Amino acid sequence: MKLLQERIRQEGLILSDKVLKVDSFLNHQVDTGLALEIGREFARIFGHQPITKVLTIEASGIQFAMATAMVLNVPFIYAKKKKAVTLSENVYSVPVHSFTRQETYQVSVSQKYLGSSDKVLIVDDFLATGAALVGLVDIVKEAGAELVGVGSVIEKSFQEGRSLLENKGVQVHSLARIASMKPGEIHFIEDQGR
Ligand code: 5GP
To answer: CA gyration radius for the chain?
Structure first.
């Protein structure tokens, strides 16, 4: 998605060869017009399938899941992150290790809102190590629902997330794929005509 790549080039802060900050338009202040375009793009890519729910994880995936779900005219669910490993009943729950924070969270979704008749599109802001998205894939499996695919806004393609998901048979689409980066320099894997 050219528009997104341009914004990353203009406003992204590359803190190291692994960490990109996009707080001015995606992760802290949100450009709502861009978020809506992102939602439209995910709906265009995946919308030919009969999606019933969009699933993300709090907090930074919420605006993109909401934009996508609004275009598809379906509800979205954000999985909740808890530090405590207290498992309540009636939730699907998986542990997710955050490599950026070096902490393990319990991620959960109420069984009320996801079930075996659902066809689910997962959306998140970043695909890096893949831990968060693999956790959501496992929740969809636990619910017995059908997974349509995973849409990530930014993929750091030099990290292992995409291959982890593809090895599980998941269809992955990322709107900006970063081949490599270092402070002052960023290279994208060219998308096909988008
Ligand atoms: P994972 O490593 O599980 O794929 O990424 C988990 C989460 O960490 C992402 O959803 C995103 O919120 C955050 N994250 C990972 N890498 C980056 C990065 O380079 N920049 C920002 N802003 N967030 C990141």
So the answer is: 16
Percentage of the chain lying above the pLDDT 90 cut: 91
93 in any annotated domain: yes
Q: Whose CA is nearest to atom 13 of ligand 1?
A: 126
What ipTM was assigned to the predicted interfaces of this complex? 0.97
What is the pTM assigned to this prediction? 0.96
Phi, psi of 49 (to 5 degrees): -100, 150
Domain CATH code at residue 18: 3.40.50.2020
| Domain membership flag for residue 107 | yes
Q: For a substitution probing ligand 1, which of 11, 126, 175 has the most ligand atoms within 8 Å of its CB?
A: 126
pLDDT in tens, 58-74: 999 999 999 999 999 99
Q: Distance from the CA of 100 to the center of ligand 1, in angstroms?
A: 7
Domain membership of residue 194 (yes or no) is no
Q: Is residue 187 within 8 Å of residue 16, measured between CB atoms? A: no
For residue 123, which of 34, 31, 17, 46 has the smallest C-alpha distance? 46
Q: Which domain holds residue 108?
A: 2-189
